[in-house]
Amino acid sequence: MEGNTPSGMQRSVQTRSGRISYMEQGTGPVALFVHGVLLNGYLWRHQLANLSDIRRCIAVDLLAHGDTEIAADQDVSVTANAKMLAEFLEALHIDQVDLVGNDSGGGIAQIFAARYPERVRSLTLTDCDAHDNWPPEAFKPFLAMAASGGLSGTLNAILADKSIYRSPQALGPAYEHPERVSDETIEKYLRPFVGSEQRTRDLQRFLAAFDCKHTLAIEAQLKTLNAPTLIVWGTDDVYFDVKWSQWLADNIPGTQRRVEFEGARIFFPEERREEFNQELRKHWQVAQQKAAS
Among residues 42, 56, 53, 119, which one has the least CA distance to residue 85? Predict the structure, then answer.
């Protein structure tokens, strides 16, 4: 998987939650892309490169991820990240966005949409945490490792031997073709976490805060969300079974379409980018027509 796709301008903006790093490309209505755990805004490079003709595409680095800078005592829970997104939009003077989330970023997108529905022009959710499936069972061994103090050693071992990242014991199950993930991509994702002891501790705190209480707390609001919603799901995801896409479709009244990508896995925004980008284009066009009517 090539790592040299144009990814827009790297920028940052100060918010109450910290100095938030983000990539930006294009002009027009804003599309905000939210990544999940262990990644950063680089996940969305193919969306920024290929959808910037119709959207001002912004891919944010979450708290405790990427180049975002925070205080040592900053809350980094998923609810805190949803609050940060609101602060981020305020800092950039952005009123509404087409919101797109993946993995824990999809859970954060649900929390944001439930708490700030007036800011959501449309919503797209891909394989992600939902309801009481946070954390998913398949991710619990990684959480246990981090809780026992092994996070720094594991990250450094993966960076020293990137074949570990692609292995079935690590992130291999997140990809249809893990052998195609470039060394550059792995560096982009993981190197920031070992830049300092605080950055490793911040990630550990992010992991330790995984709890379905965050999504359960906004379930009532989610069930009143009328923003045009697209749900796209990979059918071969060890973390998020396709049943969760149906749960989201049943519980978000604004859902217009639910799409399954046969054989796709959680990080399909990278691997199935052409197919996914086509779905986003269609969804945004319909949402725009609805808003104009």
Answer: 119
